[in-house]
Amino acid sequence: MLTGLYVPLITPFDAAGEVAVEALSRLAHDVLDGGAAGLVALGTTGEPSTLTGAERGTVLRTLAATGAPLIVGANDATALAGLGATATAALTLVPPFVRAGEDGVIAHLGALAKTSPVPLVVYHVPYRTAQTLSAGALRRIAALPNVAGLKLAAGGIDADTMDLLADPPPDFAVLGGDDLYISPLLALGAHGGILASAQVDTAAYAGLITAWRAGDAGRARPLGHRLARLSAALFAEPNPAVIKAVLHARGRIPTPDVRLPLLPASAAAVSAALAAGPVQRLEFRAAHLTAVRDGRKRVTMRFNDPVEAGPALLVFGGEAILPGRITSTVTKPVSAVTDAEAREDGFAGAADVLPGLRDYYPQLRPGDEIVIVRFELTSS
């Protein structure tokens, strides 16, 4: 049975508008390293309707190459037949717009499942499809041969959700698909989640699922509250515009571009999402902005300020923000800083480091250890 975190990946584009294959591969490996049980390709987050057939093939090959369990968006018999050995399961939408009724939906999904080479995970998202389904209808879907689970995105915790999770069908995965409500869904008994927000903080979302599955409410509840705020910020504008902008700001994809009919995320939405996220920040005085922007300053020294290599936001005077990456850190006593290291941070020599840093850290003593941080901009 499918359990744990499955991450529906964005499709990154390069400056020429082509699929950024290397960035997609890195992103896939990042989320798997962060604790995801598997990936989702060509879900709504991946903008599949805007991709050519060749681009969809590129995305599938790239993600299949990870060797991880792969759920692939496929909504008709032709798309399903083309999956072959590529997919672990297919993410298949309840038919939208036509409002076929519960019997029609069940007949449709049964016909697709009968011919599909892989099990179906049915995507129930009534605020997009205009088709409601009762708990009874969802149980009938669960009983269909070759249907393995449900991505449940009802737009909240409604009576049918409560009914279904109070007595879930055996050997049938209920995966939360509303990022904002994933914590209460897990508390009610969902087996995992298909969560686009997890591209931004994979370890935290994976940890949330693990905590609720283990019954550790003391850990899960505050983590769920924090991640609900992050998910709300990431979905403040049409998905995946904000997620892409945040990933770009952190240097993880080459552009934040989306394709029409989507528009780029607003600056306000991106700022709010970055503030809600878990990225580390390097604070500078506003006077340092020009030197950092033009490349004259690429080193800073810190005391009692834990940092590690990886994405970072460079914040100047609490206002200007540049996306960057910490490339290396070296810890040593302030008295051991060399003249060359001192000059990299704008000091005349090593003798000026202690008095200079005391402007920021008055308690600093000669034997105290500081961290020499080297960084770079990932865009301007």
Largest sheet: 8 strands, parallel, barrel
Q: How many DSSP helices?
A: 15
Please, what is the average pLDDT?
93
Unreliable sequence segments: none
Beta-strand residue fraction: 15-25%
What's the count of strands? Answer: 13
- Backbone CA Rg: 24 Å
Oligomer: single chain
Order of helices and strands: EHEHEHEHEHHEHEHEHHHHEHEEEHHE
**End-to-end distance, in Å?**
45 Å
**What would you call the structural class?**
alpha/beta
In the sheet with the most strands, the strands line up as 1-2-3-4-5-6-7-8
Query: Looking at the structure, what is the overall shape?
Result: elongated
The share of residues in helices is 25-40%
Topology:
Elements: E1 4-8, H1 21-33, E2 38-41, H2 53-64, E3 70-73, H3 77-81, E4 89-93, H4 101-115, E5 120-124, H5 126-129, H6 135-142, E6 147-152, H7 159-166, E7 173-176, H8 182-188, E8 192-194, H9 202-213, H10 217-234, H11 241-249, H12 267-276, E9 280-284, H13 289-293, E10 299-302, E11 310-316, E12 320-333, H14 339-344, H15 353-358, E13 369-377
Parallel strand pairs: 1-2, 1-8, 2-3, 3-4, 4-5, 5-6, 6-7, 7-8, 9-11
Antiparallel strand pairs: 10-13, 11-12, 12-13
Helix pairs in contact: 1-2, 6-7, 8-10, 9-10, 10-12, 11-12
Please provide a written account of the structure:
With about 375 residues, this protein is α/β, with parallel strands linked by helices. It contains 15 helices and 13 strands. The protein has helices spanning about 20-35, 55-65, 75-80, 100-115, 125-130, 135-140, 160-165, 180-190, 200-215, 215-235, 240-250, 265-275, 290-295, 340-345, 355-360, and strands at about 5-10, 40, 70-75, 90-95, 120-125, 145-150, 175, 190-195, 280-285, 300, 310-315, 320-335, 370-375. The strands form two sheets. An eight-stranded parallel β-barrel has the order 1-2-3-4-5-6-7-8, surrounded by six helices. Helix 8 packs antiparallel against helix 10 (about 215-235), helix 10 (about 215-235) runs antiparallel to helix 12 and helix 11 packs across helix 12 (about 265-275). The longest helix is centred in the middle third of the chain and has 18 residues, at about 215-235. The chain is elongated and about 80 Å long. The model has no long low-confidence stretch (mean pLDDT about 95).
